[in-house]
Every structure is written in C-alpha cells, then in structure tokens.
C-alpha cells in the first residue's frame, strides 16, 4: 500500500516519537561513530546541523563532538525577509537562542554570524522519512529543498547529508519534481550512499 506524503509524515513521526529514551540516547552515540568515519570529516570545517525536535535523532551529542574536533557548527534560522528560505548562523555554547514561528530553537539573528550556504562544507538535513533511492520527505515547508537546489543543479558547494533514525526508512516515497534527493543519509546503524 502506498501512503500519501501526509500519511507517511504522521506514521513515521509517530514511530520515532515512540522510541524509548535509552534507544534515543544510544542512537545519538551511534550517530557520532558513523559520522566520524565519513571521508568528508577529514577536510570539512563548516558544518550546518540543526537542533532536534519532535523525536528526531538527537544531534546535540554530535554537535558537542564536532566542537571537540575543532569544527565550526552552523544552525538554520528562518530568513526574516525571504519567506521559505534559511540562513545559517555560527553556533557556539553561549549563542543567544530564540524560538521561531514553528516553536524550534534557533540562534538569535545576528548578521555577523551568518555563513553563506556556498561557504559551508556540509549541510546535515533533518527528514521525516527516506527511501532506498535517497529521496527524503521533510515536514512540507520546502526550506531544505530550496537551500539544496543550487547544489542539486551543479553538485558544487556544501554536500548535503540526511540524518535519521533507522525506523524512518520506507520502501519508496512518493516524490514531487521539487524534491532534492540526497547523496548520503546517515542512520545509527549505517551510511547510505547513492
């Protein structure tokens, strides 16, 4: 049975929200192990991540590990003037934070902390579900599809990597023409690559 995109969002979000706290904790530790083996980690310096919400794979341990490796971490901020677009701001332990219109914590807007997308090395994207073709299903706002569109057209700039729990994989996603497939998705158990 093929589910609609909205049915899949509900189904998979419920699945990941039902994961026990010890499973979530172990998944966040396993994510660091997988991430540390990525060839990109040898050369990348500026890494865009996100703060987890709604049962997403906990990225805070990964962020702290990246800091310990001397890497710079950037978080997405909803663009104040260009609706549907993201800015990426340098994130450190003392960065002032605020809640955006979706109730997600993001750095308080400070233009001096903005890193242009083309200067990032990696962009780690959240996702609700993914399939074995690299397609990702997001929350439906298209923020990351817009952010990744230039990369998708030229394969230049920041490499996108999806992060997800293993339970977020589905056989096949219904796709739309604007969906940007990912070349790599990291789960606690493995690295998917296309």
What's this model, at a glance?
It holds the Pfam family 5-FTHF_cyc-lig. The protein is α/β, with parallel strands linked by helices. The chain is 26% helix and 21% strand.
Structure description:
With 194 residues, the protein is an alpha/beta fold. The chain has a single domain, classed as Rossmann fold (3-Layer(aba) Sandwich). It contains four helices and eleven strands. The strands form three sheets. The protein has a seven-stranded mixed β-sheet with strand order 3-2-1-6-9-10-11, sandwiched between helices. The protein has a two-stranded antiparallel ribbon with strand order 4-5. Strands 7-8 form a two-stranded antiparallel sheet. A hairpin with a 4-residue loop joins strand 10 and strand 11 (191-193). 30% of the residues are buried.
CATH superfamily: NagB/RpiA/CoA transferase-like
What best-fitting shape do the alpha-carbon axes yield?
globular
Residues in β-strands, percent: 15-25%
| CATH topology descriptor | Rossmann fold
Q: Which structural class fits the helix and strand makeup?
A: alpha/beta
CATH class annotation: Alpha Beta
């Amino acid at each position: 049975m093929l589910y609609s995109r909205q049915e899949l969002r509900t189904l998979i979000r419920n699945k990941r929200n039902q994961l026990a706290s010890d499973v979530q904790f172990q998944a966040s530790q396993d994510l660091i192990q997988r991430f540390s083996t990525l060839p990109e980690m040898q050369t990348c310096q500026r890494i865009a991540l996100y703060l987890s919400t709604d049962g997403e794979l906990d990225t805070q341990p990964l962020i702290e590990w990246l800091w310990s490796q001397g890497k710079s971490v950037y978080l997405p901020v909803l663009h104040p003037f260009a609706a549907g677009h993201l800015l990426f701001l340098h994130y450190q332990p003392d960065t002032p934070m605020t809640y955006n219109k979706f109730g997600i914590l993001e750095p308080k807007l400070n233009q001096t902390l903005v890193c242009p997308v083309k200067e990032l090395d990696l962009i780690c994207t959240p996702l609700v579900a993914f399939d074995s073709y690299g397609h990702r299903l997001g929350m439906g706002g298209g923020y990351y599809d817009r952010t990744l569109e230039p990369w998708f057209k030229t394969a230049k700039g920041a490499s996108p990597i999806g992060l997800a729990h293993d339970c977020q994989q589905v056989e096949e996603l219904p796709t739309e023409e604007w969906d940007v497939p990912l070349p790599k998705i990291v789960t606690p158990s493995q690295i998917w690559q296309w």
